[in-house]
Amino acid sequence: MSLARRSEGGAYQVALLPPAQAPAINQMHSWQVKLATADGTPVRGATFRVDGGMPQHGHGLPTQP
């Protein structure tokens, strides 16, 4: 499964970068987000909002950053 996607309009590309080592189950871990324009130029100073909830499962995550 690819962790990279283009925005709906195609102006941006975003990729999730997992930790170098596989995260341990039930432990906090951090990922990086890479945001670039369609031509690959990095976007600096962007703000992200992440929701890790799982509405289809009827629950969210046990912790919040």
Structure overview:
The protein has a three-stranded antiparallel β-sheet, with no helix packed on it. It has a domain at 1-21 and 29-42. A hairpin with a 5-residue loop joins strand 1 (4-6) and strand 2. With 65 residues, it is an all-beta fold. The chain is built from no helices and three strands.
The fraction of residues in strands falls at: 15-25%
Terminal CA distance reads: 25 Å
Which spans of ≥5 residues are poorly predicted at pLDDT below 50? none
SSE string: EEE
Overall geometry comes to: globular
Number of strands: 3
Largest sheet: 3 strands, antiparallel
Class from secondary-structure proportions? mainly beta
**Spatial extent as radius of gyration:** 14 Å
Read across the widest sheet, the strand sequence of neighbours is 1-2-3
Average pLDDT value? 87
Oligomer: single chain
Proportion in helices: under 10%
Number of helical segments? Answer: 0
